[in-house]
Design goal:
The chain is of the alpha/beta class. Helix content is about 30%, strand content about 25%. The chain has 25 helices and 37 strands. Strand 8, helix 5 and strand 9 form a beta-alpha-beta unit. Helix 3 packs parallel to helix 6, helix 4 packs across helix 8 and helix 21 runs parallel beside helix 22.
Length: about 800
């Protein structure tokens, strides 16, 4: 049996599980997500409990072919041919199995933790050491209580070095991860404020992180960060310290200079002066590079060898980018790394995107896998088949040599990237979702540029991880069984339509809501199958509404009559509708005195079936209006009870919007409507709260830099000038892109190389000018209009509006790029 295979009876003993085994199966894959099933016949599904109970998804995993499950003690579960291993705690069982697996291998292990930079340092250490070692490491940022055991499970007898990062958010977590990883070398990255909310104070968090290194023999860290923790350091470890200020550190960095767009570092090491060139300029990358430099020296690499390797470091892209492609294609760009585990992650993301029926993969040869080529490409071929890829394009000598493994109707192979580029037109890529996945040396960014629709340099980036964080935050506030309706109207508050809807569908929200029928039609045409409520359905488009199985909101007697007539004309019975009650918002809906008349119309009406009754809170975020909100709740309850009594059946009831979820738990009923909170904004929470993450960043670039005299005037109407001689940067965004004219003349600010720069003069249609006096800036430099640092709430306050208006004003000509880390 292979080193990462176990028979099910052995697994049962390792995790101390009960349960009768009905078949002798082999286990090689650990599964925690029913949507991401790979090699089902050798998979072991752990029914983990978190925000969603994993036991709810056993049937889904079973239907995908899984026959082995680890479940929590409780009601007896039986499915034909399935083994159920019953344990007290499913997560503990997963960690126990990973710990056992780790103990079988005598390999050197580096463990990394910190607040920031863990994943970058891990990936750079992989780049620096992979020429000497066969390395196993976390896929992407799999560093949690679940991610670490899944990462350690990858260890085989081919590996002689493991590099694992570990992240924590609560006390008591690190001991479990240390037992799984069992490192001999520890690396501590930058300590910051991330996850402070989970600890009593920063000291408690640092001490928890240090537990990862309690049995290490070597620990690399910044001297300045741990100067107050000398007595808390692991007793078994020799510490290798680095510092920019403490001369007695093992590596004292005393000089830092920018030379030809590289960063030149000089340091004292073992009484000698040494040097290092790093091909990055931002301070986060420099600190991460110094951590890697220190680690190489601590592992006895010579200063000369360390310098040579560090100079060859390449950027780490830990994110998949979804872009609009040519010929009505969608392009998923993952062009900077390629290994079997990140390929699986990327294919899972490809599977989420349903806007096109055809799914295409462009893949390069995979390096440093630790597997023999035959085994590797058989594994790749099986994975592609499992993930139902329709078209496969392989690039590289190894893939060419293993064409026979790929059982797929449309397959093409090219020796190198240039040959593929020359033949790209012959592939007739059209109306498909294309995943581009390549090792860096193949320079697949050339393919991405050709396939991506051209757009100007103003881009709105949408962070899908932040979207899911926000969704899960609000889910954590809900009572058991309460459904979530996600609001994706108005181009998802400016953030996209099907791109977000497909992700929300994949993550099992219960309903979507749009404003108009055309928005719902677009979602249906792009693969969205969730129930969709239309808030303002027009009678002229009722035929489309029915054809695309959209559900209208009935908010007036006139609309009620119009829809009933349409149903009668077309022989429609029991069509799903939603009733809106006006409890005080006074926008749309039946008012209190109209409910009895409405009930008369509903009685024995065979043309419609009421799925839900809802209303809208006018000021759920505002404490000063709480008395009014309570009145709305009482009016709503009176209305829906009368309607349910008339109908003779129970309906879905929903009243809470984003701030309602936050402040009014008693008003959840059996569904809530989550809107702007999905996008990281909740008026009921402080702006600097750590629970929500803004999903959108608006970026542009510098078109030109000019020296300006005090006497000069700037922009239309000669409205702008500088207080003294200085310089301005013209940037590629104007009111046609959604940067409103109200931001002109110093009211608005943007981040230029990390420094706030105010606007100068009036905002023009396509451009605006910034005062960059005293800022190092060149043409082409990136400029941040808003992000998680320069918050959209601040911009709204500057011009006396609300974040909704700014988001929904971002023009469609601004390219949207969706990324998933």
């Amino acid at each position: 049996m292979l080193s990462n295979q176990y028979n099910i009876k052995e697994v049962q003993q390792i995790i101390n599980a009960t349960g009768e085994l009905v078949s002798e199966d082999v286990i090689s894959v650990l599964l925690t997500d029913s949507r991401r099933i790979n090699n089902a016949t050798e998979g072991l599904f752990f029914a983990l409990s978190g925000r969603r109970n994993g036991h709810e998804f056993i049937a889904e995993a079973y239907s995908a072919g899984v026959r082995n499950f680890v479940v929590k003690e409780g009601p007896e579960l039986k499915l034909p041919g399935a083994n159920f291993l019953i344990v007290y705690d499913v997560l503990t069982a997963l960690q126990t199995l990973a710990t056992y697996h780790r103990e079988r291998f005598n390999l050197q292990v580096i463990a990394i933790t910190g607040s920031n930079g863990k994943t970058i340092v891990k990936e750079w250490l992989y780049q620096l050491l992979c020429t000497d070692k066969n390395i196993v490491r976390n896929p992407k940022s799999y560093n949690s209580q679940i991610g670490v055991p899944l990462s350690v499970w990858q260890i085989t007898d081919k590996n002689d070095l493991g590099i694992f990062e570990a992240g924590i958010s609560l006390p008591g977590e690190m001991d479990k991860l240390e037992a799984i990883i069992k490192p001999q070398i520890g690396v501590l990255t930058h300590l910051g404020s991330a996850h402070d909310e989970g600890f009593e104070n920063p000291r408690q968090k640092v001490l928890e992180k240090l537990k990862l290194f309690k049995n290490c023999t070597l620990l690399v860290h910044n001297y300045d960060q741990l100067v107050d923790y000398k007595t808390d350091m692991p007793q078994t470890a020799t510490c290798f310290t680095w510092s920019r200020s403490f001369k007695q550190a093992d590596l004292f960095v005393f000089s830092e200079t920018v030379i030809a767009k590289n960063y030149y570092l000089r340091a004292k090491y073992k009484e000698n002066e040494i040097e290092c060139i790093v091909p990055f300029l931002d301070q986060a990358s420099i600190e991460n590079a110094i951590v890697c430099w220190s680690t190489l020296l601590a592992m006895d690499y010579t200063p000369e060898e360390a310098d040579k390797r560090l100079e060859r470091l390449t950027p780490v892209s830990m994110r998949l980018e979804l872009k609009t492609g040519i010929n009505n294609c969608s392009v998923i760009d993952d062009t900077y790394n390629s290994d079997i585990h990140s390929l699986e992650i990327a294919l899972n993301f490809l599977g989420q995107q349903n806007q096109h029926n055809k799914k295409t993969l462009i893949l390069s040869d995979i390096f440093q896998s630790g597997l023999k080529e035959d085994a590797l490409y058989q594994l790749v071929a099986d994975l592609i088949k499992t993930k139902k890829v329709d078209k496969f394009i392989g690039v590289g000598e190894a893939l060419n040599n293993h064409q026979q493994y790929f059982d797929i109707a449309e397959k093409f192979f090219y020796p190198d990237t240039n040959t593929l580029l020359k033949n790209l037109n012959t592939l007739q890529l059209k109306d498909e979702t294309i995943l581009i996945k390549g090792s860096r040396s193949f320079e697949f960014e050339q393919i991405s540029r050709v396939l991506t629709q051209k757009a100007h340099e103003t881009v709105m980036e949408i962070n899908l991880n932040a979207l899911l964080n926000n969704l899960n935050y609000y889910r954590s506030k809900l009572h058991p069984g309460v459904k979530v309706m996600a609001m994706v109207k108005a181009f998802s508050y400016g953030s996209g339509t099907f791109e977000l809807a497909n992700v929300l569908q994949y993550n099992k929200v219960d309903y979507l809501a749009v404003a108009y029928i055309d928005e719902g039609v677009s979602l249906r045409e792009n693969g969205v199958e969730l129930p969709i409520m239309v808030l303002n359905a027009e009678a002229s488009a009722f035929d489309k509404l029915v054809d695309y199985k959209l559900e209208p909101v009935i908010f007036s007697f006139n609309m009620f009559d119009e829809f009933i007539k349409h149903a009668q004309r077309n022989g429609i019975l029991n069509y799903s509708v939603h009733l809106k009650i006006d409890t005080g918002m006074h926008r749309l809906g039946f008012e209190g005195y109209e409910i009895e008349t409405l009930c008369d119309l509903l009685e024995e009406n065979k043309y419609i079936r009421v799925l839900s009754v809802f209303s809208h809170l006018a000021a759920s975020e505002a404490e000063e209006h709480d008395e009014f909100t309570l009145k709305q709740i009482k009016r709503f309850e009176k209305a829906y009870k009368l309607i349910e009594k008339t109908l003779g059946y129970t309906v879905i009831k929903h009243l809470s919007n984003t701030s309602g979820i936050t402040r009014w738990p008693q008003a959840q009923y059996n569904m809530v409507r989550l809107g702007i909170g999905l996008y990281g904004i909740d008026a009921a929470l402080p702006v600097d709260n750590n629970s929500l993450h803004p999903i959108a960043s608006l970026k542009t670039s510098v078109a030109q830099v000019k020296k300006i005299l005090k006497k000069d005037t700037i922009s239309y109407g000669r409205s702008g000038s500088l207080a003294a001689d200085g310089k301005i940067a013209t940037v590629r965004i104007g009111y046609a892109d959604g940067y409103l004219r109200a931001f002109g003349n110093g009211i608005g600010q943007m981040l230029v190389n990390g420094v706030l720069a105010p606007t100068v003069g009036n905002i023009t249609m396509d451009m605006c000018m910034l005062d960059v006096t005293g800022i190092e800036v060149e043409e082409g430099d990136e400029v941040i209009v808003f992000n998680d640092k320069l918050r959209i709430e601040e911009l709204a306050t500057e011009i006396g509006t609300i974040p909704y208006e700014i988001l929904t004003n971002i023009s469609q000509r601004v390219k949207r790029v969706y990324f998933y880390e």
